[in-house]
Specification:
The chain is built from no helices and 16 strands. The protein is mainly β. It has three domains: 61 residues, SH3 type barrels, CATH 2.30.30.30; 61 residues, Beta Barrel (OB fold (Dihydrolipoamide Acetyltransferase, E2P)), CATH 2.40.50.140; 58 residues, Nucleic acid-binding proteins (OB fold (Dihydrolipoamide Acetyltransferase, E2P)). It is flat.
Length: 188
């Protein structure tokens, strides 16, 4: 058993007869009254996100997890196929277990969390950023750069990302997988 002081991003807990992964948390200590922890939890079975508040010192049942590296092979409808980089076993997961499936390209290495009790996959953790090629971007208007102007661009996975005006088709960009934001242009 863990307590609310052990809550951190990525922790898997049992709550309301389901397994949830902590997406966000905030320890709040108001000037008056007891402290509490405000959390955003994502169900690993349904993908539903809920907000929950735990009072300070509340006991939570954490789930022991194991992480393994997998390579993304291909997507087939709603199913995503991965291969273990150590023993080459393949598994298939539903799209709901992925956080940023639109930024996942073939060959990308991801970390999959497994429940140690029954070896069931719980969730897929993407790398912090991915490098993708821009396949479509409108040309930027010259002289329109006085502010941080952006334009929509389509990357090789089909995702839409807002990029600065100087980004053109064929450029490689680094994208933050957590928020889906443009980070920088990558020079080869």
């Amino acid at each position: 058993m863990a307590s609310t002081s052990d809550i951190r991003k990525g922790l898997c807990i049992k709550y309301n007869h389901d397994i949830f992964k902590v997406i966000e948390f905030l320890h709040v200590k108001p000037g008056k009254g007891p402290a509490f922890v405000r959390t955003k939890l994502k169900s690993v079975t349904t993908g539903k996100v809920i907000d929950n508040t735990f009072s300070a010192g509340h006991k939570i049942e954490d789930v022991r997890v194991e992480t393994r590296s997998y390579q993304f092979l291909y997507a087939e409808g709603e199913m995503y196929h991965f291969m273990n980089t150590d023993d080459f076993n393949q598994i298939s997961l539903e799209e709901s277990s992925l956080d940023a499936s639109d930024l996942l390209k073939e060959g990308e290495i991801v970390t999959i969390l497994f429940n140690t009790e029954d070896s069931m996959p719980l969730s897929v953790d993407m790398p912090a950023s991915v490098i993708l090629e821009v396949t479509h971007a409108e040309p930027g208007v010259r002289g329109n750069t006085a502010t941080n102007a952006t334009k929509p661009a389509t990357v090789e996975t089909g995702a839409k990302v807002n990029v600065p005006l100087f980004i053109n088709e064929g450029d490689k960009i680094k994208v933050d997988t957590e928020k889906g934001n443009y980070m920088e242009r990558v020079k080869e």
